[in-house]
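User: Could you write out the 3D structure of this protein bound to iron/sulfur cluster? I've included everything you need below.
Assistant: Certainly. Input first, then the structure.
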Amino acid sequence: MDKNLRFVYDKLLAETAENLKKNKISATVVNDLDELHAAIKAILKPGDQVAVGGSMTLFETGVIDLVREESYDFLDRYAPGLTPEATREVFVKSFNADVYITSSNAVTRDGMLFNIDGTGNRVAAMAYGPRKVIVVAGRNKIANNLDEAMTRVKEIVSPANAKRLNLKTPCTTTGVCSNCTSRDRICNDYHITKYQRDPDRMHVILINEAYGY
Ligand code: SF4
């Protein structure tokens, strides 16, 4: 990466991490996937029950493979052949997991997380239940504030996810959000993580590379 662009991203990530810490959200900046995996392994303990939120970032960064291969008790929502009822059971069990790993639709420069969910299981687990939450986010997820986070999610994240899931929503045809009333709508639960009472519960790992959307 160009050293001047690198300088700008370094400053952006450092400022975001500092502001997350002010909200009692642990924050770390890593430069690449090796550092990311090391940071996650430093939080997880062998035998931990681990669950994950739906996330392209976790696939692209190899985190799904990491929790499958290592010595963790992975509640695998992606296991082949899961029925809808079995998937629901995994989601409910996830609330009692030792560690929940997810990404975030946006991380604000002033230290908050912003997420929109279709089913609500992910934002529910981020808010309460799992003893620890690890949030993995590429630098592309950073927005200056909550207004920009909302715009980012409605203009990019939700249409892209709806397309990925092959849903019958207007945005999968137009690429633009029309605030639909479709049965398949995925913009249902809007959640802001502003502050944590327990400063050791939520750990945000910001990667100085772009992942997911
Ligand atoms: S509200 Fe509907 S049209 Fe807008 S992004 Fe969400 S699913 Fe797509």
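The domain at 3-145+188-207 is CATH 3.40.50.10420 (Rossmann fold).
User: Perfect, thank you.
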